[in-house]
Amino acid sequence: AQSVTQPDIHITVSEGASLELRCNYSYGATPYLFWYVQSPGQGLQLLLKYFSGDTLVQGIKGFEAEFKRSQSSFNLRKPSVHWSDAAEYFCAVGAWELSFGAGTTVTVRA
Amino acid sequence: KAGVTQTPRYLIKTRGQQVTLSCSPISGHRSVSWYQQTPGQGLQFLFEYFSETQRNKGNFPGRFSGRQFSNSRSEMNVSTLELGDSALYLCASSSSTGGAEDEQFFGPGTRLTVL
After folding, report:
1. Distance CA B77, CA A26 (A)
2. Which among B56, B58, B106 is the nearest to A43, CB-wise?
3. pLDDT tens track of chain B, all 115 residues?
4. Residue of chain B with shortest Cα separation from A90
């Protein structure tokens, strides 16, 4: 069975500070991993994805994520947060059937 | 290219009624997936259609059903609505190859409220 755990429900960061969101997954084979962002009242937008190859993946909006098989983790990072990054972030694993984590809400303070 | 569209955006129904939600995928996309999002259960996979065939199904009761038409548009139906069916229903489409690695593009969702 596939599953995702996002340990942090809510994170508050100052604008300009770095951000790291944690994601741990469980998957029977080589995982397809994704990070999505959802703004209030909106659908999900894909930030980045990992299927194979280089374990450091670059995405949109300055985000990156690192796949660590030994730790079953796929953490999302951004070096310098902007106020517009305030949103809910979801880690997901799977193929046609995605399993999502519970999400991490990011608040950005001025 | 137009994105994934879902209609209606908002719905209010009463318990026991049935509802049909519609999803128009991105032009050329043949796979459509449906997800339910609630505060308590989060995002849960309902089902996925590819070329008019249900290819994958999540763990939902039979009251939840779907179909896909030859133009790849999809509908999902919920019969005998319960209060717990109140949720944001998200549709996602992915490209024509049908491969597992294809990116899923999500629509804005239909907000269903059951009274």
Report:
1. 31
2. B106
3. 789 999 999 999 999 999 999 999 999 999 999 999 999 899 999 999 999 999 989 999 999 999 999 999 999 999 999 999 999 999 999 986 666 677 889 999 999 999 9
4. B43
